[in-house]
């Protein structure tokens, strides 16, 4: 099989004389060892890897292999060479093992090899693309052939027959829902310069020191310190939520004196920012004088440590026999990868219910680049945002299409792009790609299954007897981080979480921890039609998005690796999980994750080097430098034996069980009037009060 796979790679990258590369990039033409500037060496190393992966029959194999060896000990280029040379062995081993374990994969590989070996088969026709997809990205094969049929099939797969509506649904969202969001902070862009920022001189000096640190976490579009108000995502989202609540009051949906609680977590890209983030945010938020209807609470990592040490640990020592709290510190917090703060923003609602307000029934997360378009919601869906939350479907019970009992304790809405809302509130924010597939997209094109599930799940409307939103609805697997929530009762019963090692798609990963529950109903998201937020990212955060573009790309590759290994670490059969979460969430769970990631990465780098502009070539250089380091670290960790995520998942589950058991005991004792528990409640309220922003 090795020779067949090498032939496929050689075909993809255009080694045959006179043959056009299906990916649209002639890799041999990029291998020019005589050119020695930094960008050229990056390009040559990348091309040499793809040539070496094509095997010894490639006419440039010997030169490419020597080129890699010559740079292996180089202080600057050695890490890239090690990443690629190790990749050659990892890929061949993965392909061999997959062929041995999976007969279908072996047939797909042989089928593609036979197809391309026939000179009569054209290189870029639809059938060729389909056969390539079947091997590398089967979740996307044929999806664009008949999208309507695929949409209907996925809706049928997600259908739930309701056996009982929630008898005690949310009725006053202003009092009963804890709204949450995450604030992501990074250093200012180099192009702006720190001295020009409108911040104190002491903060400028500290920022100059922090800018010298290595970046430790990567987010999609974090807010740079010193961002002007018109580009500050935090102020934008807060103002949007406040205006939405004002409209709810005007419509009489909630009381005129109601205050909506909104809790923000603060996560940073550089360690030094931990010390200044809260001070900076408080200064910025206090500039916003128009907040009239929201109580804002800001939690940093330091605040979560106080929550553990001043509330949770004393409670555990009083009411349980627990003594080792290391797992608690690991999972309860806001700094780190996306998964850590995402889980905290869900779990804090249970803490809130026990210590702060017994009225809290659920929590709902928004993203700060999204707003509730109240006028369009009322006009086109018939309900305002808060009216949507009052649906008795949230918390209903039912039976899925396979006969399994489900509890719809989670809720999910949808998004519409700002530039599309003029057409309709129900315009999907992701559409089927229409352009010719080239480059790394030939290996992996998540936009296809994403567009399918956006149409089939997010755009479903309960307008006919087949799906009426009363006796029949759909469950959701594909959700977004904003526009999703969970009832506190379901949270405390099932205890879902996103592991701290999840650095992308934390929203998709959340349900995986409790995907199946032996002996109980499976916890699921209910789709609430019409619960739609407007996505305004492009309107004000363009520079932040551009700054984070390379990091986001690399994070996407890491997502494939981590999700693929994570699903193998879960306590249920791989195929059962994959069948449930396909097509979109599941497309990142690959049969051959190492192969897909190496090929995607190398072909993407080649696409940068294929451009004529110096800016794109420089982007390719930076992409290769940053990407090899991050990917190499991830691959070294994940390929240890046994799968390291098995033990990490077990420990984190133990940590969250500890958290909820402590809350359960405190609640029981305080209801009985226990003095220690009541005193803890006072301390908790005092702690939370120190996190509250005073806008006056």
Give a written overview of the molecule.
The protein is α/β, with parallel strands linked by helices and 696 residues long. It has two domains: 2-136, no CATH class; 156-591 and 640-690, no CATH class. It is 51% helix and 11% strand. The protein is built from 29 helices and twelve strands. Helix 15 (338-356) crosses helix 19 and helix 23 (549-569) runs antiparallel to helix 26 (593-609). The longest helix has 28 residues, at 644-671. The relative contact order is 0.13. The mean pLDDT is 93.
* Termini Cα gap: 70 Å
Shape designation? globular
Backbone structural class: alpha/beta
Total discrete domains: 2
Question: What key phrases describe this protein's structure?
Answer:
696 residues; alpha/beta; five-stranded mixed barrel; 29 helices; globular
What's the topology here?
Blueprint: H1 2-12, H2 27-30, H3 38-53, H4 61-70, H5 78-101, H6 103-117, H7 126-136, H8 147-158, E1 159-164, H9 173-176, E2 177-186, H10 201-210, E3 223-224, H11 233-250, E4 260-268, H12 277-285, E5 294-299, H13 301-319, H14 326-331, H15 338-356, E6 362-365, E7 370-371, H16 374-381, H17 385-389, E8 397-400, E9 405-417, H18 447-458, E10 472-476, E11 484-487, H19 488-494, H20 506-509, E12 522-535, H21 537-540, H22 542-547, H23 549-569, H24 574-581, H25 584-587, H26 593-609, H27 614-638, H28 644-671, H29 675-690
Parallel strand pairs: 2-3, 2-4, 2-6, 4-5, 9-12
Antiparallel strand pairs: 1-8, 1-10, 6-11, 7-12, 8-9, 9-11, 10-12
